[in-house]
UniProtKB/TrEMBL annotation:
Residues 18-130 form the Large ribosomal subunit protein mL59 domain. GO terms for molecular function: structural constituent of ribosome. GO terms for cellular component: mitochondrial large ribosomal subunit. It comes from the Eukaryota. Residues 133-154 are annotated as: Disordered. This is Large ribosomal subunit protein mL59 domain-containing protein. Residues 134-154 have a biased composition (Basic and acidic residues). Pfam families: Mitoc_mL59.
Length: 154
């Protein structure tokens, strides 16, 4: 049947698919849902046991009802009754937000910063510790400091 063709009200009932007829006979849209019947689209709590029971119509069956009602223009009535209500926005899974990376990758910058901080005053410490070896080590250390600084700038 083509979409959204106006159909006379008396013929509409004969054209509706069987699941829609069954639904509208059980839950007429003009009447509120009785208190003794559970809401067809929502969970309800059993008063005796306190357990949460599933809705009468699952999400898949709600979608089927809406798809069958859409050509007749009745999907709005189902949505007003609460079919396919948004389940709320859930947080994305932990790994989808940002990849955690390996520990060595996560701590690389802090380790390099510690090294550069430790090496900055090292030439003076070596001179104070052993003046004879200080000259050779100070020159080698100055070259290492330059290499580390160049690596951390990248």
């Amino acid at each position: 049947m083509p979409k959204n063709i106006p159909v006379p009200r008396d013929r509409l009932v004969s054209l509706l698919p069987q699941p829609l007829l069954r639904f509208f006979s059980r839950y007429p849209p003009s009447q509120p849902i009785p208190a003794d019947k559970p809401h067809p689209f929502e969970f309800h709590i059993n008063p005796l046991s306190g357990n949460r029971n599933d809705p009468v119509y699952s999400r898949r069956r709600q979608a089927d009802l809406i798809n069958k009602a859409r050509p007749f223009g009745l999907d709005g009535i189902l949505k007003e009754m609460g079919a396919l209500r948004d389940m709320g926005s859930s947080r994305p899974m932990k790994g989808l937000i940002k990849w955690k990376r390996h520990k060595s990758e996560r701590t690389y910058k802090s380790r390099m910063k510690k090294r550069t901080d430790a090496l900055e005053g090292m030439a003076d410490k070596i001179k104070a510790w052993n003046p004879a070896k200080a000259e050779g080590k100070a020159q080698r250390l100055a070259g290492k400091e330059a290499n580390i600084k160049a690596a951390t700038r990248e």
